[in-house]
Write a structure and sequence with these properties.
Blueprint lengths: L1 H5 L3 H15 L4 H37 L1 H27 L9 H11 L7 H15 L7
Amino acid sequence: MVLFFNDVSGTEVLVILIFILMFFGSKSIPGIARTFGRTIRQIKDASNELQDEIRKSGVDIKKDLNLTRIVEETAQDISQPLDQVANELDDTVLYEPKKNVPEDTEVNIVENILPKKDESVEEQVEVNNAKEDKKDPQSPSE
């Protein structure tokens, strides 16, 4: 309605009012104004009802879709594997080997490193020197 009056100047409105007064007469102008007012009011009410229906249908559609739940479920589906990978990385970075090693394992490691009980260290050194002499026959003899 306001857009209509943006293009109409004051003198044009005056000319329109004079034309209505001459065409309809002074007695019928109040009835025409009431009818025009009712019509405008009905148009506004219909427009408001239409806007309300559109809003209600939008809310109903939003409830039917429940977009927030779908978004939350998708976010959880994405974050669970990422959280698992992050936890595994943290566990790897902060890894501490177990300090409680069974005694059997320690004994096996020590037995493999140390010489056997019936052989002395000196005998093993002599055996190792003899093996080296056999490998390198050109070495100068002592």
